Amino acid sequence: MFDVIIAGCGPTGAMLAAELRLHDVRVLVLEKETQPASFVRIVGLHVRSIELMAMRGLLDRVLEYGRRRPAGGFFAAIPKPAPEDLDSAHAYMLGIPQPVIVRLLEEHAIELGAQVRRGRAVADLEQDDEGVTVELADGERLRSRFLVGCDGGRSTVRKLLGVGFPGEPARSETLMGEMRVGVPREEIAAKAAELRETDKRISLDPFGEGVYRVVVPAAGVSERAEPPTLEDFKQRLRAIAGTDFGVHSPRWLSRFGDATRLAERYRIGRVLLAGDAAHVHPPIGGQGLNLGVQDAFNLGWKLAAQIRGWAPETLLDTYQAERRPVAEDVLDNTRAQTQLMSTEPGPQAVRRLLTELMDFDEVNRHLIEKITAIGIRYDFGEGPDLFGRRLRDIDVKQGRLYDLLHRGRGLLLDRTERLTAGGWSDRVDHLADPTAALDVPCVLLRPDGHVAWIGDDQQDLDDHLSRWFGKPAN
Fold it and tell me: With helix as H, strand as E and coil as C, how does the chain read?
């Protein structure tokens, strides 16, 4: 019997498996595909996700395969730079091939002891007071204490649970792919610039050695699940640009719609949802993969605490309470961005106005923090502004703060040198450091880096340790 079975070995499932293994939870990941995806779509890791990689000692590994870009110009592709003093030691975006980040996270999970089985699709499930029975497509039945559906927007787990997935169906589609072209670069650049004056959804961007990434609106919404053909791209380019630019030899081709949906619940009993299984939205702003990885980071330590037996009664419920409002906000900002990409006069007028407003630092900063997820503040109750927010990677006497979070434990950062984590020392590390770059006396960090307490009183600290880390061991 496993402690947790995870359906889906994409970024969300792999990250969740690794987070659970940090706490010695027995994890099995089931992936219906027999082989990893072969297409080399580039995705962007935003600031918060890069911080999470640093918190678990993965950043150097990820940086080796990624390409840094400035952390700006994301909101509806409005070309405004990020504020120079963005509140992060990792204030950049990292472009990385999606198969690579999936592979790195899967390898990380396996190194920590997770099992991954490919070609195994979930077909049915039953749960009771003790656990979940998972039936696979080949008839095999497996047993675990919990099941987490990380199996994408068409999630089998969500459907078997009967969880509603309300929202808006796709009303438009976009074709995206990487391919070679047959005309000079200067001709493509000039035509692409002309087209984007009237339609921001079109782009032809060089991607090295004669390869271009081509993004073009589709003629309508397809009922087919399979990728488009090269001929589909040629037809749309001829219709919009008057030429197909001689595109040939595609590396990969895909289509995406603007469907926007949010699961009504993230948990029913011993079955939970994360990533695209819980929310889908247009890829504008590049938030999708990031949102799922951050779901996993929030859920992992809480589910592990439940399994290890020290979780406070309501801890696992905070997963939905914290992450579902974040997803709601992402869905709303992608809806807004989609409108701002419209070619209609009204949305274009709003786009011009917003472009002017983003010259104000406060407006630009707010939108950048929203897209990169560093502006998230969980509702922990009343307290200073830092309460409920993540703490940036500050200097401490042992080096960098995030280096102290590699094990996925809580951390008491104590500038007074008077406090103790006492009976919680099996779950919470303690660093007494009067030189730490903080403007408050002490903070208690959860394993996901969010500030769970600020102060200098031991009794108040003990109350908050109990709130997040359960009863003391002695």
Answer: CEEEEEECCCHHHHHHHHHHHCCCCCEEEEECCCCCCCCCCEEEECHHHHHHHHHCCCHHHHHCCCEEEECCCCHHHCCCCCCCCCCCCCCEEEEEEHHHHHHHHHHHHHHCCCEEEECCCEEEEEECCCCEEEEECCCCEEEEEEEEECCCCCCHHHHHHCCCCCEECCCCEEEEEEEECCCCHHHHHHHHHHHHCCCCCCEEEECCCCEEEEEEECCCCCCCCCCCCHHHHHHHHHHHHCCCCCCEEEEEEEEEECCEEECCCCEECCEEECHHHCEECCCCCCCHHHHHHHHHHHHHHHHHHHHHCCCCCCCCHHHHHHHHHHHHHHHHHHHHHHHHCCCCHHHHHHHHHHHHHCCCHHHHHHHHHHHHCCCCECCCCCCCCCCCEECCCCEECCEEHHHHHCCCCEEEEECCCCCCCHHHCCCEEEEECCCCCCCCCEEEECCCCEEEEEECCHHHHHHHHHHHHCCCCC
Q: Average pLDDT of 79-95?
A: 92
Looking at residue 90, its pLDDT comes to 95
How distant, in Å, are the alpha carbons of 25, 32, 118, 148, 433 from that of 102? 21, 15, 14, 18, 37
Q: 183 Cβ partners below 8 Å, 6+ apart?
A: 243, 245, 246
pLDDT at 224: 63
| Tokens, residue 329 | 């906000």
Residue 265 confidence (pLDDT) above 90: yes
Structure tokens at 188: 């493509």
Rounded CA separation 333/376 (Å):
14
From 125, 113, 118, 110, select the one nearest 159 (Cα to Cα): 125
Q: Give CA–CA dist 392/310, Å, rounded.
A: 27
Amino acid at 180: R
Helix axis angle for 361-372 and 317-340, nearest 10°, is 130
* CB-based contact 299:148 (threshold 8 Å): yes
Q: Which two tokens stand for residue 456?
A: 């200098």
Spatial distance between the Cα atoms of 166 and 158, rounded to a whole number of angstroms: 12
Phi and psi for 295 in degrees, rounded to 5? -55, -50
Per-residue pLDDT at 254 exceeds 90: no
Say how far apart CA 17 and CA 60 lie, in whole Å: 20
Q: Around Cβ 217, how many Cβ atoms within 10 Å?
A: 17
Q: Are 170 and 219 in contact (CB under 8 A)?
A: no
Residue type, 165: F
pLDDT of 227 reads 83
Within a 10 A sphere around the Cβ of 77, how many other Cβ atoms? 16
Per DSSP bridges, beta strands 42-45 and 92-97 are antiparallel
- The answer on pLDDT for 39 being more than 70 is no
